[in-house]
What we know:
The protein has helices at 14-26, 64-82, 99-114, 125-131, 151-165, 211-217, 293-300, 303-311, 313-324, 326-334, 385-400, and strands spanning 4-10, 32-36, 52-53, 87-88, 92-96, 121-123, 139-143, 147-149, 170-174, 178-184, 187-192, 197-205, 225-236, 247-250, 262-265, 271-274, 278-279, 345-357, 368-371, 375-380. By secondary structure, it is α+β, with helices and mostly antiparallel strands. The strands form three sheets. Strands 5, 6, 7, 13, 14, 15, 16, 17 and 18 form a nine-stranded mixed β-sheet that branches. Strands 1, 2, 9, 10, 11, 12, 19 and 20 form an eight-stranded mixed β-sheet that branches. The protein has a three-stranded antiparallel β-sheet with strand order 3-8-4, covered by helices on one side. A hairpin with a 4-residue loop joins strand 11 (187-192) and strand 12 (197-205).
Amino acid sequence: MSDVYDIVVVGGGIVGAATAYKLRCRYPDARLLLLEKEPEPALHQTGRNSGVIHSGLYYKPGSLKARTCIDGYRQLLDFCGAYEVQHEVCGKVVVAVTAEEAARLAMLQQRGLENGLKGIESLDPRGIRAIEPMIGGVAGLFIPQTGIVDYRGMTRALLSAAISVGKARADILYGFEVASLREDSGVVELWSTQRRRAAARRVIFCGGLQADRLARLDGLETDLRIVPFRGDYYELAPHARAKVRNLVYPVPDPHFPFLGVHFTRMHDGSVECGPNAVFSFKREGYSKTAFRWADTAEALAFSGTWRLFARHWRYGLGEYRRAFHKPSFLAALRRLMPTLEGRDLVPGRAGVRAQALRPDGSLEDDFVLMRSRRSVHALNVPSPAATASLAIADHLVGYFEELEG
Length: 405
């Protein structure tokens, strides 16, 4: 790799792929290289998320999350339609199972309206059952904009489009894990763990679970740290899939940092149930016993990790119990579907969320994009980043245009 590219994008998840596509559309004469450390794209957060096209219901109005989710939603539907990526806008039900949760529905609906959603419908118990006959609740909301999509397929389509839309050379190099970088005479040199070299005049980092480490390699100063949280799923057994028609979500609890278990019909017809949220002892560890010393030591040496644990220890213990105790997981799901039985559930996959923490233990609630002299970093882009990917890419390209030189 002795050639110097105009642009290197680091990361072959959906945000990196969307960024490469947007760069090629805007700069068709620029020579572009995408680096991905795995043998194929979308193997981590992109390929292990719930496959939901988020509507923008939950996010603070005016935040980058809210703005990019709404914009990205529209762009995603246009792209999937143009490139024949499997998707469906099926709507979802948000279900309150207590009077306290029902009281929070009005605020949730108002937030959705402020974010530009239309057609939100308030539901009584009969209305909930008309949409999802097996779901019990005292009140609910129907959000028509929510959908499902094949995010791995969309990532592959974005990369294929990125190569085809430009005029200049574009390459994808798999198996290239960035271990170090340096700037020399206006060129950024990236070296892999195998001492391979790639070079470009500008770099955009979309590193997901490794985003903070890549930022530190680049000399960026930030108090954010990525702390990984694993989410375990069950699936509905084939005989039970008809119990869920589309998507069923709980009302978020403002006292806890994660959404809670829900039911998601996937693009292939399967139905996922979950996830829980537990501290992961390995950034890219998808089994319950996955462990990597370097990841664990780094997370536990960070003050924010311990402060988060202290604030939510009781919640965390419950999540760990659900991880190893199927009846506890079943009990959480039965809040939404009282008739669900243990035999209806079979073990599913797991994913790891890259969550940025502050030193005070607070979760960074918004997307965080940063730049250095010759590079741009997507430092914190958890959910709904897949839905918002094309809009996030627009912002990254905007930052790219402000770089020196």
